[in-house]
């Protein structure tokens, strides 16, 4: 398990790099440091579906989400098909090597300020059924929030 | 000679004294609201704000009693519907519904109510202990009862409500 060092009180944190993708109709994000690569998903290959891991597989999909306005320019993952719904394969860092999961395009790399990332309200944190849901992001003028997950739920290293 | 007797005078004086309000009696601020046809109240110090029409962001994977989250000047707060916790039927949101932003059990959250009736200061003595005839699920949630505008009002314990909700009730 990686060591955690609490930030000093009052210190200004640098923007957090996140990898965003779609799963089960929702816009989802994990820390970019957990991701070591992405490529188009091979056809016919059996890879773990991320929507099932996140608990989103059987939940109603949402209207398309307005794109985030990150602090840094959005960078599509190399060679990624950005067609919404296209299958992408994310490679997550794992002690035994790399774990690959299937996600839905577009896959984006964004940097967000700490102020834009909201911890779950306590009653929501107590009652959510989604394993690993840890924060929410609210893009301006968007109809829905972006769900941030602990990448260890997807099999990444802790 | 006057036919008035001392007894009559004293009786009249005693009767008139009954209408004197003790201005020194402590008062309690209550936020009175309706859930369906029933009236409830929270202690005023538990309610930070009363919000009217506020956009609620749905969050998947939550019980139906957790309506979603709202953005209150940069702070994200949950919104719960207390109907199930109170064993009340939950009708669709009406145009008069509001969100009470409350604090209890060390947590804060919005609470969806069908209608805010009033915010009043009532004499502390007007709040009676909860009757023993209350349904079991209500006994631990009701701090007391009073009458307001000829309607019974149950004063709810927000600490207990939030703690129970966090434990999985409602």
The low-pLDDT segments of chain B are: none
Instruction: For the largest sheet of chain B, list the strands in their spatial order.
Output: 8-1-2-10-9
* Assembly category: heterodimer
Q: Determine Rg of chain A (CA atoms, Å).
A: 15 Å
| Count of alpha and pi helical runs of chain B | 3
Helical element count of chain A? 2
Structural class of chain B, please? Answer: alpha+beta
> What average pLDDT do the residues of chain A reach?
78
Query: Portion of residues in helices of chain A?
Result: under 10%
What is the secondary structure topology, with strand pairs?
The complex is a heterodimer of chains A (about 160) and B (about 170).
Chain A: E1 16-23, E2 26-31, E3 35-40, E4 48-49, H1 50-54, E5 75-76, E6 87-94, E7 97-112, E8 117-119, H2 122-127, E9 133-137, E10 146-149
Parallel strand pairs in A: 2-10, 4-7
Antiparallel strand pairs in A: 1-2, 1-7, 3-6, 5-7, 6-7, 8-9, 9-10
Chain B: H1 6-17, E1 27-35, E2 38-43, E3 47-51, E4 66-72, E5 75-80, E6 98-104, E7 107-113, E8 115-123, H2 136-139, E9 142-148, E10 151-156, H3 158-167
Parallel strand pairs in B: 2-10, 5-7
Antiparallel strand pairs in B: 1-2, 1-8, 3-6, 4-5, 6-7, 9-10
């Amino acid at each position: 398990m990686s060591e955690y060092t609490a930030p000093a009180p009052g210190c200004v944190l640098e923007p957090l790099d996140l990898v965003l993708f779609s799963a089960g109709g929702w816009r989802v994000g994990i820390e970019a440091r957990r991701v070591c690569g992405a490529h188009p998903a091979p056809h016919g290959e059996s890879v773990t579906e991320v929507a099932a891991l996140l608990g989103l597989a059987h939940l109603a999909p949402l209207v398309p989400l307005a794109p985030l306005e990150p602090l840094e320019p959005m960078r599509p993952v190399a060679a990624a098909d950005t067609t919404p719904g296209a299958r992408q394969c994310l490679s997550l860092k794992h002690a035994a090597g790399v774990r690959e999961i299937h996600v839905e395009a577009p896959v984006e790399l964004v940097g967000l300020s700490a102020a834009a990332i909201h911890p779950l309200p306590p009653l929501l944190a107590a009652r959510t059924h989604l394993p690993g849901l840890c924060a929410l992001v609210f893009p301006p003028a968007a109809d829905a929030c972006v769900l941030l997950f602990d990448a260890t739920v997807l099999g990444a290293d802790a | 000679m006057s036919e008035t007797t001392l007894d009559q005078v004293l009786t009249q004086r005693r009767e008139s004294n009954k209408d004197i309000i003790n201005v020194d009696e402590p008062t309690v601020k209550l936020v009175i609201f309706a859930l369906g046809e029933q009236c409830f109240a929270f202690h005023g110090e538990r309610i930070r704000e009363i919000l009217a029409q506020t956009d609620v962001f749905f969050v998947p994977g939550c019980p139906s009693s957790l309506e979603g989250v709202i953005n209150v000047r940069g702070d994200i707060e949950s919104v719960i519907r207390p109907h199930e916790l109170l064993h009340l039927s939950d009708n669709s949101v009406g145009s008069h519904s509001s969100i009470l932003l409350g604090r209890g059990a060390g947590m804060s959250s919005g609470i969806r109510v069908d209608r805010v009736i009033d915010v009043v200061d009532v004499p502390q003595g007007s709040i009676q202990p909860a009757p023993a005839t209350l349904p079991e699920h209500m006994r631990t949630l009701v701090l007391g009862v009073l009458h307001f505008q000829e309607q019974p009002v149950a004063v709810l314990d927000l600490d207990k409500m939030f703690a129970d909700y966090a434990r999985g009730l409602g």
